[in-house]
Amino acid sequence: MITSNYDSSFFDDSFINQFINRFIYYLKEIASASVDTHKNHSTEKTYDEQNTKMLSMLCTVVEEVCAKPVLKEDLHMDLECEFGMDSLQKIRVLTRLEKLVGKVDKEALFSCRTLSEMVSVLGNEPIVNKEIPYLQIVEQCKKTPDAIAIEYNDERMTYGELNEKSNQFAHYLKAKGINKGSLVGIMVSPGPFMLIGILGILKAGAAYVPIDPTYPIGRISYILNQAKLNAFISEQFLQLIIEKLIKNETTIQSMVFLDQEEWMDYPREEPECVNSADDVMTVLYTSGSTGNPKGVLLTHRGYMNRLQWHQTMFQLKPLMKMKNSFHLFGHVC
């Protein structure tokens, strides 16, 4: 017997039955599937002469390091979960590749999830990473630039405007030394600046740390000091809170006000994405109900998994409403 745990006071019966039927369908599909799940893999790729040589060399190195043959269907397998390559073996593969072809982008190669991706990096082909959530927003901005992305009180902003403004803010942050690996705190009120700030931080390659301005001063101060932020973003009307934080011996390395015009003269072109799916996207601090708040690191890949489930589960469509929070990606994409 299959049971489900849905809130019947929130979902109607037809909605619940729809998901039960979908779950049963997936079970039947898995049960009837062939043992060779990669036999009809849809990610077929042809290689030019250069990449064919790279592929052959890579397969030879992998076979030597892992002591197992590399088959055609292995090219698209997850190296860790499906192919069975551990991190030490991957390091050995990269070391041998460097001896064979000279200097390689070890960081990019180490972040690759499949052999096919590694071939693309070795052949200097760009990889479009579909596991980075903010790139989905960028894609939506390009598809519907004139559609309304944000509507808050009397303010409206289109997807095109959101994309350009967040690009400008990203270039501004990069000019101030914010890049991949940086942590940037953001304490703003709901509205367009919130999304411009978060997207700008992510486009700069950094991770954002959301802070609610209604938190007690002691808690905000603890988070800022504990996170060791590279920059702190806020708005001018919150200066009273910021002054209290400074009096409370809070460490703030670099202060940026989103409602100042300083960043609005920067280029509107899209910054190059410098992140891999396993880079930290955000650090969320717990409520601290059992002591000091604890920072939880969420990666792009993990958030994308949650986003895909969220969009499927709630069947998000245009004009649907939501409760405001820092986690807006499911509704903006």
Structure description:
Mean pLDDT is 83; it is low at 34-44. The strands form 3 sheets. A 4-stranded parallel sheet has the order 4-3-5-6, covered by helices on one side. It has helices at 13-32, 49-66, 79-83, 87-101, 106-111, 115-122, 133-143, 159-175, 192-203, 217-227, 239-247, 300-314, 329-332; strands spanning 148-152, 155-158, 183-186, 207-210, 231-234, 255-257, 280-285, 295-299. It folds into 2 domains: 49-122, Non-ribosomal Peptide Synthetase Peptidyl Carrier Protein, Chain A (Orthogonal Bundle); 133-332, 3-Layer(aba) Sandwich (Rossmann fold), CATH 3.40.50. The chain is globular. It is built from 13 helices and 8 strands.
Layout of helices and strands:
Elements: H1 13-32, H2 49-66, H3 79-83, H4 87-101, H5 106-111, H6 115-122, H7 133-143, E1 148-152, E2 155-158, H8 159-175, E3 183-186, H9 192-203, E4 207-210, H10 217-227, E5 231-234, H11 239-247, E6 255-257, E7 280-285, E8 295-299, H12 300-314, H13 329-332
Task: Put the structure in a nutshell.
By secondary structure, the chain is of the alpha/beta class.
